[in-house]
Amino acid sequence: MLGYLAGVVVLAHALGLATRIGRAVPGRLAGTVWFYVAAAAALLAEMGLGLRLAHVHLNVLGWVGLAVVGTQFTLWPTVLRTRMVPGLERAVRWSLPALAAGLAVVAVGLATQRRLMALAGLAAYAAGLAVALVPFVRTARQRPPHTAASWMLGAGMAWLVVSVVGDLGALAASPRVVDLDGRVTRLVPAVVAGFALQTLTGALTYLLPVVFGRGAWGNRRLAGILELGWPLRVAAVNLGVLGLVAGVLPAAGWWLAGLGLGSFVPLAAVALAASTRRR
Question: Tell me, what's the pLDDT at 85?
Answer without folding.
Answer: 93
